[in-house]
Amino acid sequence: MNQHFPDELKKNSYGVTGYTRFYLEPITSLRYADEFIRGDEQIVRFRYIVYFSITGVLIILCALINYLTIYIDCFRSRKREMALRKVNGASERSLLALLSTDFLFTILLASLLGMFFVELLKPWFLQYSMIVDTDISIYGNCILYVAGMSVLAFIVALCSVYLFRRHSLQNTLHSTQMSIMGHICRKGSIVIQLVVCLTFILCTVIMQMQLYHLRNVDMGMDYRNRASLGIWMNVDMNVWAEKIKALPMVTEVVRPVYWPLISMGSYSAFEVDSWDGLNGTTENPMGIDEILAGEEFFKFYNMQLVAGEWISDKSDVREVNIMETTARTMGWTPEEAISKHIFYCNKEVEPMTVIGVIKDCAYRSPSKDLPHTVFVNTNKSQWMWPRCFVLFKYKPGTWEECRRSIEEMQQAELPDRKLFLDSEEERYNKYLQSEDALSSLLGFSAIVCILISIFGIYSLVSLTCEQRRKEIAIRKVNGATISNILSIFFKEYAMLLIVSSLIAFPAGYTIMKHWIETYNRQVSIGTLPFILIFAGIAMVITISISWRVWQAARQNPAEVIKE
């Protein structure tokens, strides 16, 4: 199709370039593409749903590894019991039934508690994940999951009995040493849990830092406590400007000859293929937004002039202000851009002359590149005024009251007209609603991971203390103090935390660095988050193991050795 592109499509009625290429795209791809969905219609980006699904799988694996490790350790601690049962006539089938029954009762209890929490947390989850369809039943999936875990429980029990068969009863009864493989499995389980936990926490912290940065960094404009009003159509907006000004919540009103910068953006867009300093024309024309502006418009948004002068009443229709990014893309510094010319693709149109450069204004979604923008004199474009909006400022904390008052006036006077009433701050926050939802879900996931890790570490420490009771007693007999014994455990788990951090921190940093690069304003991560997270997890681990080790260290060594 593109090799035989019809010439009649390459020009439109104005004589400029029209269509030049066909593109084929599967509808399924368009359905989930960020560019295909309007920003105000998009609730949660499809890729963020994928991210959360991955975190769910990681949490399941983390909990499963934790559970299996504890189960294997419990089985090792029951080897003598199993041997004594067999000496007293128990068959392998009865041992398998015993282990399976224990496992299945645990799964049954966990399933009942789990479904209770599902029902309890489901409304909260739907709210924060912004899922509109609330008619969702997941109990069928829960039953499948429980069935899978039951099969896994039987397989683990079967493997346990098989391994038990390979040891003689005498070795089992008199063995007091834990195998090297058991130590490796235990430590490996803790490392895996800590890696997942640290990664989640790091990703959540960096995401919060980036969101705070996007909302509080200098955007080149001030959008807070600002709003816009438009009524469609054939309405004298000057009359409504006076009505808005009379509201007690409103502090400033701008005459209706502009468009709101965040809510609407540019009123038109065009392409340029040449400018001063460029040899010839570029093969890829640059798309540029065109925004109606004036001195009161710039003051309204507290925009900053980098070089040159603002457009004003004395400015010609082709004299424009441009953004800093646009100037640098064209190869100019802000100072060099003054008096430079920008040429339209249609050379019959008079070129634009730059008279001022404005600090970059991030008025589009932060996940989009900074737009190339020119600001034109609204007084020389009066044919656009009937389509313009009333821009106004309101007192902090009064937006809802202000909105209600304006809507009541519109319903009373022009009930058949469409009202366009937007807060610039609300509109900007909509750009980040997917990130806010994912941040909340990741934060919840991080809490779950921390709890899983704490339970796992505490359980493994309890088993270790039980298995090393004689070792602890002998150490005490030979002069070791409680603090000496505590330090032995702390050094072991400190080393595991260091190993986990060396894996989790680079992985989390790589993931979040790639995510941050999708935004036009990026936070500097630094080393402080890593230090604080490491110190926080170290404190949590210390607290979770101190009590259990302290209890074991306080026991009477004579009684332990004789037992």
Description:
- By secondary structure, this protein is α+β, with helices and mostly antiparallel strands.
- 56% of the residues lie in helices and 12% in strands.
- The chain is built from 18 helices and eleven strands.
- The strands form two sheets. It has a six-stranded mixed beta barrel.
- Helix 7 (180-216) crosses helix 16 and helix 14 (433-467) packs parallel to helix 17 (528-553).
- The protein is elongated, with a radius of gyration of 34 Å.
- The N and C termini lie far apart (87 Å).
- The mean pLDDT is 83.
Give the strand order, joined by hyphens, for the main sheet.
Answer: 3-4-9-6-8-7
Low-confidence stretches: none
- Based on DSSP secondary structure assignment, what is the total number of beta strands? 11
The backbone outline, from C-alpha atoms, is elongated
Overall pLDDT metric: 83
Q: Which range best describes the helical content: under 10%, 10-25%, 25-40%, 40-55%, 55-70% or over 70%?
A: 55-70%
Helix/strand order: HHHHHHHEHEEEHEEHHEEEEHEHHHHHH
- Percent range for β-strand residues: 5-15%
Count of discrete alpha- or pi-helical segments spanning 4 or more residues: 18
Measured between the Cα atoms of the first and last residue, the distance is 87 Å
Characterize the biggest β-sheet.
6 strands, mixed, barrel
Structural class: alpha+beta
